[in-house]
Amino acid sequence: MEAPIRQPLSASSNLPANILVVEDDPSMRTLYWDLLTTAGHTVVLTECPVEARLCLRDCSPDIILLDLFFGEMNGLEAIPALLACAPLAKVIVVSAAEEGQMAMEALRRGAYDFLNKDEKDFAARLLLRVGQTLETVYLQRRIDIEIESRGGYAFGDEVIVGVSPVMREVFRLIDKVVLSGSNALISGESGTGKELVARAIHLK
Predict the structure, then answer these.
(1) Helix (H), strand (E), coil (C) string for 135-148
(2) Per residue in 133-143, pLDDT tens?
(3) pLDDT per residue over 42-92, tens digit each?
(4) Is the backbone peptide bond immediately before 49 cis, with ω within 30 degrees of 0?
(5) 8 Å CB contact between 6 and 18
(6) How far is CA 19 from CA 35, 122, 129, 155, 176, in A?
């Protein structure tokens, strides 16, 4: 039933992607398998975070779908551990738990998104969230490749120099603002490059 996971997305890749499922309910694992493989994704099914971490020794998923409750094990505690093994992956917590405080805590611990499996049209919502998350994954990796090749973030004839994780996050935020078309408030101390960021948003 399971399939070996492929290499992670590159800038030239299109969907589908690699998805690691961490779910102890057999019926939910079957649902994930049917939905995601039919959509063209490569899926690996695991029953608990411990098994998932073992799988991460040999695979690099783009998305990790994580339940919150595994008997005596808490899925919230597994989020940082899974991300430590797969730092490029996006964790989507999928649980029947009430949203609100639980969702906020999952996001605080590093999850990318939270989806309630008891909501109506769960299957459609899951596929939508997976697709949206993959767009973010693709964008981030494209930016990373461009940053590495140019030594920074290029816009027009200029480059904001920097390849550190903090600078990469700034560059990703610039692209998010550009893609959304939203207004942005740029704040920071004098000399931190606010004008460069504003010009990058304007010229992109």
Answers:
(1) HHHHHHHHHHHHHH
(2) 988 888 777 77
(3) 999 999 999 999 999 888 899 999 998 887 677 888 999 999 999 889 999
(4) no
(5) yes
(6) 12, 17, 13, 33, 24
